[in-house]
Amino acid sequence: MSQEIFLAYVQGTIRLSAFLYAACFAFFFHPFLKANGTGLWKKTAMVFSLYAFAYLFCLFLPSPQNLCMLLTGLLLAAAAKFLHLQRSFLLLLALLFFSTQISSILIAESFDFTLKNIFPLKPPQVEAIYLRSALFFSFIWLIRFALLFFMLYWLQKRLLKKKFAPHKKETGYLCVIPLAGILFGKIIVHLWSILKDGVFFQLYEQYPSFLVFVPFTALLFYWGAYFTIASYQEMTALQEEKKEHFVIHQQIQAIQERMKETEQFYSGIRQIQHDIRSHFTNLKGLAQKGNCREITEYISQIDKTIEIFHFALQTGNEVTDIIVNDKCQQALKAGISFQTEFHYPQSEQYNAFDIGIILHNLLQNALEACEAVPNGKKFITLSGIQKKRFFLIEVENPFQWKVAIDPLTGLPATTKTAEASLHGIGLSNVKQTVEKYMGDMEITIKNNMFHVTVLLQERSNHEPGNPNRLYHKGI
């Protein structure tokens, strides 16, 4: 191989690297891009093009790598609105990519120097030297990209494993380690080869221990970023769990308060039953006297008293009676039609408070959705029916806002701002409760209709984790 061919081969490989790096860059960003209005693959192609343009443009400038990072970051920030991602999150992803990229380069170059020392270039002809150099270059080039791909893959897998939505301040903390990794890599690359007083110095020749120190430190920065993200996700998951338990606790307390009111309700009914003989005696006395007007007024007063102690909807259970009637009254006050065919299961293998939590959250979300519908028919339909060992709950309502399904949770991620968190917690609580019964929750979104189906399964009293084991003991 001649010198001209070798140089042309190296230059061509460098330009090919631009597209391979761009492909890795797009691969890393792809799962975090959402298809909101614009196609997912169009956004991925945009990310690919931004990096490829920045890389090729900076090849003709001094210090191309540093400028490539800066230009890529600026282009991503400019495209944040198109990509539907926050600039701070785009910056974090870019820093993670560049930190991983430079770590893979440091590891590959250390391996390259070691191989060249083990297999020194001593062929008899110059053409053979160029050929062997090209082979070495290609081999290390492939190792570099293989390392980068697998390191990005594991980092991406970690990011997608659990919910990851840091705020700006948290993003700043998460950027520290990848930024430090980039700075470390830039310093090492600068020190690789130095020309001083006409003498050419190589870092690994002067300090052989750096052959181990550099790749080890590069891996430390990579794993440092990896475990920082993992720790943040675990902390966030713990906070979400605490928030969910708090909401469930508040809901149970509210149900218990309503249970006390219901107890008073039934006490009133028992009082009416106790007084009914007295009422008949009074009516009989008025009838004997022929006081028809007073009889009418007396009966009217009894009707008013009975009306106070009347549930419009009967479900077959005190807890669900309270929740369904409360939500029905709220719906009617808001001008929302409320239709229900809900019958509490006859089996004792269901916890009334669990079903109450499911109904409360589903109906509350349905109410919020209907209230946001500006025009058109507003309605909520609820059904609950037992089929052998299964209990099926369905809620349907119209909605206004755009809904996207979160790939991590399988739950809707609405475009609401202040309400989004509570909306998510409500459905998350439903899902958590459903899992206690080895059940399932299915969400169907079609033609601005939101349909939730919950399937619960009876559990034996002897099965571990059966909620009724505590409930039926009165706990």
- Give the strand order of the largest sheet, numbering strands 1, 2, ... along the chain: 3-4-5-9-8
Helix content: 55-70%
Mean pLDDT, all residues: 78
Distance between the termini: 84 Å
Number of domains: 2
Largest sheet: 5 strands, mixed
> How many DSSP helices?
14
The chain-level structural class is alpha+beta
Count of β-strands: 9
Integer-rounded radius of gyration? 35 Å
Order of helices and strands: HHHHHHHEEHHHHEHEEEEHEEH
Contiguous low-pLDDT stretches (5 residues minimum) are 415-423, 462-475
The outline comes out as elongated
Strand content bin: 5-15%
Written overview of the protein:
The structure is a single chain. A hairpin with a 6-residue loop joins strand 6 (403-405) and strand 7. The protein has 475 residues and is an alpha+beta fold. A five-stranded mixed beta sheet has the order 3-4-5-9-8. Helix 1 packs parallel to helix 6 (126-161) and helix 5 packs parallel to helix 7. It folds into two domains: 3-245, no CATH class; 313-471, Histidine kinase-like ATPase, C-terminal domain (Heat Shock Protein 90, 2-Layer Sandwich), CATH 3.30.565.10. The protein is built from 14 helices and nine strands.
Secondary structure topology:
Blueprint: H1 3-29, H2 40-58, H3 64-78, H4 80-83, H5 87-118, H6 126-161, H7 168-192, E1 193-196, E2 199-202, H8 203-206, H9 210-289, H10 292-308, H11 318-333, E3 337-342, H12 352-371, E4 379-387, E5 390-398, E6 403-405, E7 412-414, H13 418-435, E8 440-446, E9 449-457, H14 468-471
